[in-house]
Specification:
The structure is a homodimer of 122-residue chains. The first copy, chain A, has 122 residues and is mainly alpha-helical. Chain A is 61% helix and 8% strand. The first copy, chain A, folds into two domains: 11-77, Arc Repressor Mutant, subunit A (Orthogonal Bundle), CATH 1.10.10.10; 79-121. The structure holds a DNA duplex (30 and 30 nucleotides).
Chain lengths: 122, 122
DNA sequence: TAATCTGTATTAATTGATTAATACAAGCAT
DNA sequence: ATGCTTGTATTAATCAATTAATACAGATTA
């Protein structure tokens, strides 16, 4: 499992976002077992308390289900997962466009730059 | 002057980024007068100390020049300004692509979504 | 000259996030 | 039944960012 944590930004937020992305992208199977708080915390090199809060947020989003003593599992509600995926993507797109516009990029310029970047990555 | 501050993220970083964008996009004329620390701080609703640090970062980036007692002015080095503009844009593009990939979006999907979003805004 | 503005520096207080160190109750497997 | 793991809760400590309240020196301006 891979973690990209920027020490300068709130950790809990990043944990939530990345775990949500892992679920949304199918890295965690819908309906499948979800790792324990302590396991995830150790893996991410983070305090269990912080991870616990991130998981609470994931549950609020409806992405995981908690069984008090038997651990957690990923929701099997594919519609919910897809909704979260779309919502997160929309959020990223909007934030990106806003920042590019602030830098003075026109719509056309943004399209050019992004298409160029996508090509380069191949 | 417009400020978009997310209380959950480090303020100084956001101030620096937004001011850099204002300069990069030409909202502040190259070579022109730059507002005082106190003025900017009051306008942004932020502590002068925090704004001061943001301005220090802007100076480190070479975007503004400080005249100890006569205030500051924007650099007239257009090349420097353009470099910063490109650098910031690249940073935004890369961060955006990474997050979209984490959500399980393919290159084609990303291209579709972004082009759609650009169209919609018109 | 006096008032005002500039950037800068300093120290303390405050606030929030994160860590740390536990503890507890419930389920599950041996 | 015993030991293990689970999620959860609690309290204190730590650390960094931000705010607050000043102060100072130099330049400008009226």
């Amino acid at each position: 499992m891979e973690w990209k944590i920027d020490e300068n930004l709130p950790i809990r937020t990043q944990l939530t976002e990345q775990l949500a992305a892992y679920i949304a992208s199918g890295c965690f199977k819908p309906g499948g077992r979800f790792p324990s708080v302590r396991e995830l915390a150790a893996d991410a090199g983070v305090n269990p308390n912080t991870m616990q809060r991130a998981l609470s947020e994931l549950e609020d989003m409806g992405l995981i289900i908690t069984n008090r003593t038997a651990g957690r599992c990923v929701t099997d509600d594919m519609e919910k997962i897809n909704n979260v995926r779309k919502k997160q993507a929309k959020k990223q797109v909007e934030a990106f466009l806003e920042k590019m516009k602030a830098l003075g990029f026109s719509r056309d310029e943004i399209a050019d730059v992004i298409n160029e970047a996508i090509k380069e990555g191949e």
